[in-house]
């Protein structure tokens, strides 16, 4: 499964239009978004017409810029935007079905493990200081799963050579 993302710049969250994910299962969507070991994935789920989303958008962008400067190889910021044109709730319901969130904006933190993407944190409209704290605390866990995967890969290679 491939999820196309548009990278605007290193200091801007990667924008993922939700319409590209709407027919996927939770596992398919998360596997396509949380791709690499050792990376903390921070996702903002936002919706068109959401006043809270508009209020937090520049704060999230500022946090993304700061975290990219401090940890460029350890973090990825994603922004999943849900359309809500003319009161059509279908895409919003699909987003809630896939990601299991209750409201907008919702922020999640995931890391990749040997069993797939693991959710570390989830919050509706959190203070950015709290989100930053949770991101920093997730770096160690991401590194643990990366090391575990590298060790398992090395063991598998040794087994195949034997």
Describe this structure in words.
This protein has 162 residues and is an alpha/beta fold. It contains four helices and five strands; from the N terminus they run E-H-E-H-E-H-E-E-H. Strands 1-3-2-4-5 form a five-stranded mixed sheet, sandwiched between helices. The two termini are 33 Å apart.
Sum this structure up briefly.
The protein contains four helices and five strands.
Topology, element by element:
Blueprint lengths: L13 E4 L8 H8 L6 E8 L3 H20 L4 E8 L7 H10 L6 E8 L2 E9 L3 H34 L1
Parallel strand pairs: 1-3, 2-3
Antiparallel strand pairs: 2-4, 4-5
Helix content: 40-55%
Distance between the amino and carboxyl termini:
33 Å
Basic shape: globular
CATH topology: the name is: Glutaredoxin
Query: Could you state the CATH homologous superfamily?
Result: Glutaredoxin
Helix/strand-derived class?
Answer: alpha/beta
Q: How is the biggest beta sheet arranged?
A: 5 strands, mixed
Strand order of the largest sheet: 1-3-2-4-5
Instruction: Note the total helix count.
Output: 4
Characteristics:
162 residues; alpha/beta; Glutaredoxin; five-stranded mixed sheet; 4 helices; disordered N terminus
């Amino acid at each position: 499964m491939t999820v196309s993302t548009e990278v605007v710049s290193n200091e801007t969250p990667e924008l993922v239009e939700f319409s590209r994910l709407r027919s996927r299962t939770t596992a398919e969507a998360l596997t396509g978004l949380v791709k690499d070991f050792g990376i903390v994935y921070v996702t903002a789920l936002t919706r068109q017409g959401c006043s809270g989303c508009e209020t937090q958008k520049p704060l999230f962008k500022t946090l993304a810029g700061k975290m990219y400067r401090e940890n460029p190889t350890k973090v990825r910021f994603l922004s999943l935007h849900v359309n809500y044109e003319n009161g059509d709730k279908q895409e919003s319901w699909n987003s809630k079905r896939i990601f299991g969130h209750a409201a907008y904006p919702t922020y999640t933190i995931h890391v990749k493990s040997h069993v797939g993407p693991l959710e570390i944190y989830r919050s509706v409209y959190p203070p950015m200081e709290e989100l930053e704290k949770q991101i920093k605390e997730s770096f160690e866990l991401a590194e643990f799963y990366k090391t575990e995967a590298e060790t398992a890969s090395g063991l598998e290679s040794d087994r195949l050579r034997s």
